[in-house]
């Protein structure tokens, strides 16, 4: 593009801004957009900060409560359990992602795997409902609508006022005219993204990576650029403002409301998964086959018993140098955990496949693309949640087996068997509270920025394809603009 054409583009953009500033509707829409984005950033940041402090206090209280327990039977402490909390990624103040639905803490106890809890909402998934007024929601859903209200009449207004022919006759090409209108809309995009960008940069002070911040901001810039191009294309194709606005409103509803729901529903159909009740029954059926770890006489442990007698070269479990009940508890926990992990892995694989199917719809909906990109880059995607579940499950297993080890080594078998005989026997079947200091400090970190950027490659390509196709369409229409 020549210098003369560039100056024309800038002049057209300035003229568009003058029109917007004279229009009360345009000024109002711009003000609403900026206020919504800024306020959502502030409110969400304050909320996330408060939640972070609350999580830290609860984790400290939970650990202290466990360690401060008096002398008890070690298996009582297995069932007493404790909590593990996950501190969200710094950028989650801008896009909480699926954390609002999956929760951020897990109760760890023996014989079972609990799901994450303390979620903000359990009413749906991130792809099936509008969600709360987070910065991500504002930019993903409301910003395109605000851009439509501002720019839908960019070219069609020139037609209706019969100034288009005059502009074209003065040597301004259709492509140059559209470029000027587009530059004005892109400047609005810049204003909308300013609070988001500043907030994202602040996360660098909380150990967030520059790559993650840049990827986040660039992703949203590409997304809003898609909408700018859609607005320019519609305004160029339709001869009347009413036609342009109607078409863009329909496209907004289709791409921002309908397609995300279609993506989620399609994923559930293509990759069906068992319901909770069905899964619970299947888990219980498999666990029953393993025997009752609380009953040393369960036939399921007969072979284990014989192997121990042979290993220690004794004739009865009373002669074992270790507590047989503790060994059975440990063996039972290991087998149960193996079964529970199999079901957990199946569930996570199904969830991941469903998510991947949903993400394919980014090729037909930029909304799906930016939601996927945003959650992945921020570190609030399904992959991060699954890693949290795996790490906390390993923490749970180590915690329970640590208590079982205390049961095996610190408690006499006969004392254990006679623990309910009387008060003195019950007291004798306890171990020192010093054994409760087996808790490990649990700290969960998001995946590296490089890993997150790699996962978001497909979403970036989807947005770039949208831009390339729309730019080609605008260039085609611009050359035939009348």
UniProtKB/TrEMBL annotation:
<feature type="transmembrane region" description="Helical">
    <location>
        <begin position="210"/>
        <end position="233"/>
    </location>
</feature>
<keyword id="KW-1133">Transmembrane helix</keyword>
<feature type="transmembrane region" description="Helical">
    <location>
        <begin position="137"/>
        <end position="155"/>
    </location>
</feature>
<feature type="transmembrane region" description="Helical">
    <location>
        <begin position="183"/>
        <end position="204"/>
    </location>
</feature>
<keyword id="KW-0812">Transmembrane</keyword>
<feature type="transmembrane region" description="Helical">
    <location>
        <begin position="25"/>
        <end position="49"/>
    </location>
</feature>
<dbReference type="GO" id="GO:0005886">
    <property type="term" value="C:plasma membrane"/>
</dbReference>
<protein>
    <submittedName>
        <fullName>Delta 1-pyrroline-5-carboxylate reductase</fullName>
    </submittedName>
</protein>
<dbReference type="Pfam" id="PF12040">
    <property type="entry name" value="DUF3526"/>
</dbReference>
<feature type="transmembrane region" description="Helical">
    <location>
        <begin position="459"/>
        <end position="478"/>
    </location>
</feature>
<dbReference type="InterPro" id="IPR021913">
    <property type="entry name" value="DUF3526"/>
</dbReference>
<feature type="transmembrane region" description="Helical">
    <location>
        <begin position="245"/>
        <end position="263"/>
    </location>
</feature>
<keyword id="KW-0472">Membrane</keyword>
